[in-house]
Every structure is written in structure tokens, then in C-alpha cells.
Amino acid sequence: MAAARKRGRGAIVGVAALLLLAALVVGAELVARQVVPGMVRDAVVERLALPADHPVDVDIDGILLPQLIAGTLADVRIASRDVTVGAFSGDVVARGEAVPIRGDAPAAGGAAEVRMTTEQLRSLLSGIDGFPAGSVELAAPNVAASFEAEVLGASIPLGIALEPSASDGDIVLTPVEGTIAEATVRADELRQRFGAALDGLLQDRRVCIASSVPAGATLTSIEVDGDELVARFDIAGGIVADPALQEPGTCA
After folding, report:
1. What is the pTM of this model?
2. Of 57, 85, 113, the domain-final residue
3. pLDDT tens across 209-225, in order?
4. What are the Cα distances from residue 156, in Å, to 14, 104, 153, 179?
5. Which structural domain range is residue 211 located in?
6. Domain co-membership, 188 together with 213
7. CA–CA distance, 118 with 85 (Å, rounded to integer)
8. pLDDT tens digit string along 37-83?
9. Which of 121, 167, 128, 172 is nearest to 147 (CA)?
């Protein structure tokens, strides 16, 4: 009987120890969930020179403790609205994979998406000489702008639909059609009809954004989605440790 009682007490002690260990693990996980996202948020705010109180949401997938022990965060998602860096602004969502938390090792890579409103796009395009950025509207799948064209001494209102695309890290707006007196005409037909008179209006417009985004971010696509212009970027894994990739790029 005494042996049985001892075994019973031993089992109770063992269960209590396991419960205590589980409680400690859960507590440590909860603490990590409070601390680590805040550290990531502070790093993002500092590197993008955002106001200290700018809202930045950080979500880290999976159980944190094993990731902290391994020294790598498997999947990190960062989201913030109305982020402005240089002339480029919008709502940003970025993801990083296998992000190291110490040392100078690179991450596996990542991607980001920036959604711009019409007003934010107008602000970005305002730096193009002679471009009527204030008239810009989003008309999926194109960007629309209104010009005053001088043809044979007369001023003619002309609407241009521009197809957005990404090329060598730049935003490119390519004229695809125009509207004259409510009649829609393809861009190549406008060139044939008016020749050099519309050359200045029917040229591609390139917008370099390299100086407004980190050098480790490369623009890969851009499209109109409803009432927003969506720009997507590839993020180099080395951006987490390489200061050169964290700094803004350059425009030629």
C-alpha cells in the first residue's frame, strides 16, 4: 500500500511538473507575441522614417518560440496605410520569408504591394513636365488624362487612355487610345491623322520611383484595380541586413 501511495504521489508530481512547464511555455509564447512584433514594427518605422506613432500592423505566422530558438521568423507580414516615402505613397502590405533575427544572414526573400488612390497617383505624376496630373482618373484597365491639343491653330480637348506597366523598375504609361468630341480613336490612328501635332501627347511617360523606395525593392507589375492603382514589388532577401539595399535607389 505504501509503495502504491508513493507511486501515486510521484504521478501527481509528474503531472504537476508537466502542467507547470506547459504554463511556462504558454506564458513565454504570450510574452514573445507581445515583444517580437513590436520590435519588428519599430525597425520598420525607423528604416522608413515614419512618424513614431504611425500605425504599422505586424503578423508573424506560426508558434514563435521555436522560431526564436532557430533564429529565423518563417513568415512575417507587415501592413500600413498611407505610407509616404519620397514622392511615392499608398497603403502597403509586405511579406518576408525566413527572416533572420540575428546576425547578417539574408532572408529567403519577399514581396510587397502598394495600393494608390487617384489623389496619391496624381501627386506621383505631378513631377512629369507638361503632364496634366490634376486631370488623372483611374478607368480600369487604364489611367485617363485630359489634354489641350493645339491642332492647326485651334485648341482641341483631348482625352488619352494610358496603359500602365512596369519596365526596368519604372512605371510606364503608354497611350492606347484617345477621345475627341466624345469619339474614341486608337492612339495609332491619332498619330496617322495628326502626325507631329500630337507627338508630345502620344509618347510613353516614364516615372522613375527608384529614389522613393529601398534599393532592395524592384517594381515588377502595376495595374488598375477598381479605384486603386496597384504596384507590386519583389524584395531582395539581403534587405534585412544590407544597409545599401535599405537606402533609396537612384533615378538616372
Report:
1. 0.82
2. 85
3. 998 888 999 999 999 99
4. 88, 59, 9, 11
5. 100-252
6. yes
7. 17
8. 888 888 888 888 888 899 999 998 988 788 888 888 889 999 999 99
9. 128
